[in-house]
Amino acid sequence: MFAHIADFLSRSPPDPVRLPLTGSHWPVLIILTTYMVLIKIVGPLFMRNRKPYDLIGVIKAYNIMQIIYNTVFLVFSVYFMLGPGNFNFKCITNLPLDHEYKNWERWLCYSYFFNKMLDLVETGFFVLRKKYRQISFLHVFHHVYMVYICFLYLYYFGYGGNGLFLVTLNVVVHIMMYTYYYQSSLSQNSQGDLWWKKYITIVQLAQFGIILCHSLYVLRQADCPASYLSATWGSLISVVFIILFGNFYVRAYILPRKKVPRRAH
Question: Which one of 4, 139, 142, 143 is the catalytic residue?
Fold first, then answer.
């Protein structure tokens, strides 16, 4: 496996088309470092002696934008995979560079990467509203990981292929998530009062289960030219996220239920 990693990291990008922020590691690393400094140091210091900002209007607009953005991506991605891309889901490979629909594949993948950048804004809202409990390790790790892994995939593996199929599953989760955020912003109740909140985590766990099974299936096919490292990493990180999100689900929805005292008869 280490030989595969060394070979993978030493090779040149397979696609000569370098869309914004995908030509080098440095822009993405600077953005993520700035993000961490702002949410962990600068933001809390700025808000120390200030009251939480009322951002309900901005948050509503942001959630609506995310719902529309992710829905449009989902429609175009499914259409592309079943239509012009003609994906073989048993072994999904990138389209050739001279394929007539290669630019479709490039911009679809890039639009997902760009959206992961937009997702970072959400943490800024938490800081400005002093919702520090929501800036958990899982929240920060997930946002940072998604931005950088998308960059690594585009830089080292190219646009499309197996990665496009996997992120399309993730978009379904995000449509649910931002719909939930928007619905909760319309109510005076807390987010925890919305009965279907826990099902977002269940869908996330199902998503990682599908990714794990599909990645393992790809690895079992010796004649599949899809990236060995991509499938290996997909399976490993799926296990990590299943553990993290599974732990969150247990602590948020199972343990509190057990602590509720039984009524006296």
Answer: 142
